[in-house]
Design brief:
about 220 residues, alpha/beta, Rossmann fold, seven-stranded mixed sheet, about 25% strand, globular
């Protein structure tokens, strides 16, 4: 067997456990970490006041779906992970409003400009490879006056914690497929929304490298 063939076999052997982790283990881990009572109030606060047609980026297993207000008439759910989408199926069928799933990432959205009344991301932006492109796409598909509501973890304001975030970034990407180093405010400022309201706070009970949260809304 040539060197190229040996590499192909090694790549296949590596791909199998990686695929198993991302398709099976990571979605189960996501539900365990994210489906907690202490996060329920944060979800309720984020989704309050939404109405009409909503785009949710990185919907994961659909934990937000039960919390959407009655005024929301449809949800377009974008999620690239096959395992997340399998778990999303059940929650989508039980949702009060129609849920249309799109198995894709957020960097290139297949929607017309101005298509949605609101967009949502909940601890999602950290997992997108080209987050600036994704946020620009979110802005593009919002109607004028439409809002992007977000609840995200990211880069801490404490220099000591930031040092630990940088040290552990490789591990975070390996086991959770996301980054600890996202400056959410900076990303949204670069996207040139008409109005931006960002609140930062520490999430009770979370490890220090995960506890710095960004919550707010950006208006198209």
């Amino acid at each position: 067997m040539g060197i190229g063939g040996a590499r192909s076999v090694a790549a296949e052997r590596w791909a199998a456990p990686v695929g198993l982790y991302r398709d099976r283990i990571l979605p189960a881990f996501y539900d365990k970490v994210m489906d907690r009572p202490e996060l329920a109030e944060h979800r309720r606060r984020q989704l309050a006041g939404l109405s009409g047609d909503v785009l949710e980026i990185g919907i994961g297993t659909g934990l937000n779906l039960p919390g959407y207000p009655d005024e929301v008439t449809s949800v377009h759910a974008v999620e690239p992970n096959p395992g997340m989408n399998r778990r999303l199926d059940e929650r989508a069928r039980a949702a009060r409003m129609p849920v249309e799933r799109h198995a894709m990432s957020g960097e290139e959205l297949p929607f017309d400009a101005g298509r949605f009344d609101h967009a949502v991301s909940t601890m999602t932006l950290c997992s997108i490879a080209d987050v600036d492109r994704a946020v620009a796409e979110i802005r593009r598909v919002l109607r004028p006056g439409g809002t992007f509501v977000f609840f995200e973890h990211g880069l801490h304001d404490d220099p000591g914690v930031r040092r630990w975030q940088r040290r552990l970034e490789w591990l975070q990407r390996l086991y959770a497929d996301c980054s600890l180093l996202l400056d959410v405010r900076a990303v949204l400022e670069r996207a040139d929304f008409a109005d931006l309201d960002v609140e930062t706070f520490l999430l009770d009970g979370a490890p220090r490298i995960h506890q710095f949260m960004y919550r707010g809304r950006a208006t198209r």
